[in-house]
Amino acid sequence: MKRLGIILSLMAVLINPIFAQSEAGAIFLLIAPGARAGGMGEAHVAVADDAYASYWNPAGLGFLDGQELAMMHVNWLPGLADDLYYEFFAFRKRYPTLGTIGGHLIFLNLGEQIRTSETGDELGTFTSYMTALTMSYSALISPTQSLGLNAKVSYQHLVEMGAGSEKGKGTSTDFGFDVGYMHKEWIIPNMTLGLNLSNLGPKVDFIDPDQADPQPTNLSLGFNYALVNSEFNKLSLVYDVDKMLVSSYPDMDWDGDGYIGGYDEGGKLSPGNDYNSNGDFEIAHTDPIYKAIFTSWVDDWLLGGDMDYGSDGPGNGDMQIGGFDWTDSDGDGKIDLSDNEISKSAGEPGDDTWGDYNEYGIKEVGNSKERTISNELDRLVHNIGLEYWYGEYFAIRTGYYYDKLGKIGNPTFGIGLRFAGYGFDFGYTYGETGHPLTNTMRFSLNMEF
């Protein structure tokens, strides 16, 4: 099952690199469908003017007449494996006195995996996949404004059974909701505003409910400005920004006593327990959705205490904050493993003689005070795109997907054709050699009738 773990880890990083330490479950819901959007840097929340609006912003369906079918195929992560693929099917239909009904079906195949025992022996093969069914409804609330709602059911089939002593199956069935809003002629005639809050729902769990992860609740804000809007030429500039509304905390010393946990929930001394003397949870955890909607804006800035680091990042530490002194012997202005002058501190946490670093040279004491608003801003994902239409028949597109924290910057390109109610779109993602998303090609088909 090693390859399955690699695939899921890459999905967490590549779909939305703000994830750290399994912050959310059902992350396949964040894979962007539609070759048109794929060619525009995945900026589409304020566009959403076809059947794909069911995913991007259900409010966009309210402005559409008639009915439409749409579908997309993509070989997912072509740089990693050749048996991973993603399928998307969407529909919409307008009812004059009711509004617009729509929906979509997602299927992600993760390919064939090799089952291994706890000792590494091969026990055969199995297949893994994920799917979700969504129903949409949208209606106008004014000639220029619309609201939309999605209700979805998702199913994840990772493995038929747990490994070793784990009981139960590695499957999960969950439900969630999306809420969308679109405002055309926002502030100025050529501007459209789009807003979509997606994946609201209970936590996702597989074999162990105690290790459930929150759904990938995501807030997308988009702007679509028509630079040129003439009879034969249309040019639009589109920008989206995404904020994951998941609050995740690694092991942290919230009360400043120098240790992680050590007390029970009532604040009584209990070695090995997970709380501090104030009853605050100090080991790695996430906030429930009703709380994370608010705390996710400041959890990497104002909330939390000093982090307990391992050798390279938060988590897997020794449940103790600091305790070592390092000397910057090479004079490069930072502590690294080439600085060999290390000594273990005497005394207890809080003493003047207690060192600020762990044994790997990472500062632990006082690191919560060093976090700023830039730590929050770095977690935003930015999408920008340009789309040019000649008449109603031919389009060319380009865009850029940028995530600073994940160190991802992917240019995108695409084309589109429309004729007699049929539409074909192609999107291409460019990247550095060896990057799993490099050379990803999306193909979409639309049919209006």
Structural notes for this entry:
With 449 residues, the protein is mainly beta. It folds into 2 domains: 2-247 and 381-448, Outer membrane protein transport protein (OMPP1/FadL/TodX) (Porin, Beta Barrel); 250-286 and 301-378, no CATH class. The protein has helices at residues 2-15, 35-38, 53-56, 289-295, 373-377, and strands at 67-75, 85-95, 99-116, 122-142, 145-159, 170-184, 191-200, 218-229, 233-244, 248-249, 252-253, 285-286, 306-307, 324-326, 342-344, 381-390, 394-403, 408-419, 422-429, 440-448. The strands form 4 sheets. A 14-stranded antiparallel beta barrel has the order 1-2-3-4-5-6-7-8-9-16-17-18-19-20. A two-stranded antiparallel ribbon has the order 10-12. A hairpin with a 6-residue loop joins strand 6 and strand 7.
Give the low-confidence spans. 16-22
Mean pLDDT: 87
How many domains?
2
Report the CATH architecture of the largest domain.
Beta Barrel
Task: State Rg.
Answer: 25 Å
Strand coverage percent: 35-45%
Q: How many extended strands?
A: 20
How would you describe the shape? elongated
Largest sheet: 14 strands, antiparallel, barrel
Please bin the fraction of helical residues: under 10%
CATH class of the largest domain: Mainly Beta
Number of helices: 5
Structural class: mainly beta
| Sheet with most strands: strand arrangement | 1-2-3-4-5-6-7-8-9-16-17-18-19-20
